[in-house]
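Let us work through a complete example step by step.
Step 1: write down the sequence.
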Amino acid sequence: MPFPEYWRGQAFPPSFGITPPDKAVVEKGNLIQSHHPELGDVTGYPLVSLGREDLAPAFLLIGDSHAMASSPGFDSAARLLHKSGLFFRARLCPLSGISNSSESGALAQLRLMYPHWEHNMNLILDWLEHTPHIRTVFIHNRWIELVNDQRDEQMKQLVFQGLYNTCKRIRQSGRQVVLLGPVPEWTFGPCKLMRRNALLNSNRSDRLLGGDFNTRQRPVFTMLEHMAETGLCRVVLLHEAFHKNGQWMEQEGGHLLYCDDNHLSPYGSRKMVASVIDRLFPEWENTASN
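Step 2: predict the structure and record it as tokens.
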């Protein structure tokens, strides 16, 4: 079974009157770097084109490496719906308006986790306010890194406030906001497990990280529910795309759904987005057959 590489989208040219945000920092040293080497560049064109390239982009996908891993699915969905979108490939922690927070310990921890977060987040929010073509912003993040059970209440409150500020600012600029739920994560991931089994001549099966998906992700679901209650955003959960006949899946029909223990393969991304396309793009659903 071949090792799946991350999808590589085309850089978006400055057309349709859209000027890419300048001086975005795309971090190096990421674990996914070997499968997507161009993400290591510091570039003045940090936008990747999704869907139809002959149309002005109508949506934007932002977030961390989980957003990057989901971008092939958004690309395929946009083509099916005869639409165009963008992925902002500079890594983002989707929090804003908390740089002067009194919770200095939690803020310092966020800055260690996401060194370029404030710079890139301010950059993309400023850019959005001057880019009227974009009507919907999708945010996909590894939320469990921010609000797991080991995080104290100060951190969780700071994360909620930062996400609230982001959604409020995007809504005030006239856009819709869609927060995407978590995907299952694994102890090894299919590729590492296959190599391990071959080396040890074993037939070990993988386990979900944390043992039970719903238990581990409960703080994430709570945060997303609270965000939905604010009326600033919609929430679309993704995990059911990987659950079938009472089992969580890492592969399907000989296709790997993951590149590692938590990042989707292009196949997995396309399967996931296709499973919720009507909830992601309800206003465009009827264009797929036109």
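Step 3: interpret the result. The first helix runs from residue 65 to 80.
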